[in-house]
Design brief:
The protein has helices spanning 18-28, 82-85, 88-96, 117-126, 181-184, 217-233, 238-253, 261-273, 278-291; strands at residues 33-37, 41-42, 99-102, 109-114, 131-134, 139-144, 150-154, 157-160, 166-167, 177-178. It has 294 residues and is of the alpha+beta class.
Amino acid sequence: MPHPTDFPRDPARTALPTHLRTALWLAELGLPALPLRDGKLPFGNCRACAKSACGDRPSMKAVGPCQCPAPCHAWAAATTDPTVLISPAWARAWRQAEAVAYHPGGGGFTVVDLDNADAITWARQNLPTTKVVATTRGEHWIYRGAMQSANKVRPGIDIKSLAAYARWYGPGTEAITALSDDVRALAVKDERAPRPAAHAITVPRVAGGGECRHRTPAYLERGIAMAEQRIKEASEAIHNAVYRMFLAVLSVHGRCGCLTDAHIKRLFTAAQEKGESLRHCEAAWVNALTTLGM
């Protein structure tokens, strides 16, 4: 994970707010970025999205983050799209920003947030060494690989990866290592039934592999075709559009056993044709599974 100063200076960016320049560098690294207010809080939803009126919650009909052009919805607003980061809709937020955050899971990383000296001591004794970033109260240990996020997994320890944001404090020290089972186990409440690896692209199916009991095959085909088309037509916030379509398909067909590898490949192909990397596709898919509790 390079430091922003490792990139050549771009004269066109020197007039931009400092935090926006950092966010653009993070985006070039593949880390979806967003502004923070008060040093650690995301900007609140706009009036149109206040109290989830836009339907951004999975319990509502329109699942997933909405397409609001403003930096709404906390971590779900994080993006690697420079045209979004420098858009007029984000300008006010960048002028008021006091820090920058990124969506670790969206970039394929996991942050173990160690909030005090005792937590750091425990990590040194129990977790694999990796890149360490000093924070205001402790340290961030960064691993390569995404997983479910979880708060208070141990005293003073949070996991920030999928569906979470972490403040950017700098590039850190030491070499980054792969996410290990020791770290994954922190977020597993019942060790007798551990969750599958975050990058395993699997879809839960009914026993024996059955057909969809509440929809016809033609309905599934129309749903996949519609998701492909909407991904292809997305003009901005591509990562969010891909996530929304993955979430929509899984919310209807993810548990009934009718999705096949061929269907999933079609969705991934449509996303990659829009410029999404395989890593981002995998992260969006796992993020959708996690949001739906699958």
